[in-house]
Design a protein that fits this description.
3-stranded mixed beta sheet; 30% strand
Length: 201
């Protein structure tokens, strides 16, 4: 069973439907025991970094996520769920992230002359043989919706990047921790393959 963490951050239904389409059982929950007893755990989310951290703490899910991370169980963060795994975000100065992975979330510069938020399809540059990308071709397209992006402190964990006036660290992998800034559940057959690869870990 795959636990999808519910912390009032939206974007849960589309993630749930994608796993159901692939034939996997999911449970949308914020119950600690259900999350800890699941085979795999997913942290989706859209919205504000600061609000999301407040909700995680309100429901005591920050400590549950830390426990999952240290357990070796496969964990997948999606969009805001990726950002929360890191140390801080320019979106909410002074609010600490979960700090499971080293790095920070920064805002796209207005000086780039590009539309912010970055919404739409963008190609992936694959590196470090990420396990989520088995069967995925270089320059495959995925769907992004974000105004802030990851700068990982350790680039060896970055498994895919995209370019949008800056190099976006689009996906990371570190042990049992996986995360995507883009939305695999909205990325067609490429995204479904990524989710299938996660399910098969």
């Amino acid at each position: 069973m795959i636990a999808i963490i519910d912390y009032d951050a939206g974007n849960i239904k589309s993630v749930e439907k994608a796993f159901a389409y692939l034939g996997y059982e999911t449970k949308v929950t914020r119950d600690a025991q259900e999350i800890l007893s699941a085979d795999k755990v997913v942290l989706p989310g859209v919205g504000s970094f600061g609000d999301a951290m407040n909700h995680l703490k309100q429901y005591q899910l920050d400590t549950v996520i830390q426990e999952v991370a240290s357990s070796g169980k496969p964990f997948l963060g999606i969009c805001l769920g990726l950002q929360l795994l890191f140390e801080s975000s320019e979106e909410t100065p002074g609010v600490a992230g979960l700090g499971i992975l080293p790095g920070r979330i920064v805002r796209f510069s207005d000086d780039m002359g590009l539309k912010i938020p970055h919404i739409g399809w963008n190609s992936l540059h694959l590196q470090h043989e990420g396990r989520l990308f088995r069967g995925i071709f270089e320059q495959s397209f995925v769907y992004y919706v974000h105004s802030y992006y990851l700068q990982a402190a350790d680039e060896s964990i970055v498994t895919a990047t995209s370019d949008y006036g800056a190099t976006i660290h689009g996906s990371v992998e570190s042990g049992n921790i996986f995360a995507c800034q883009f939305h695999p559940e909205k990325s067609g057959t490429v995204g479904l393959q990524i989710l299938k690869n996660f399910c098969e870990l």
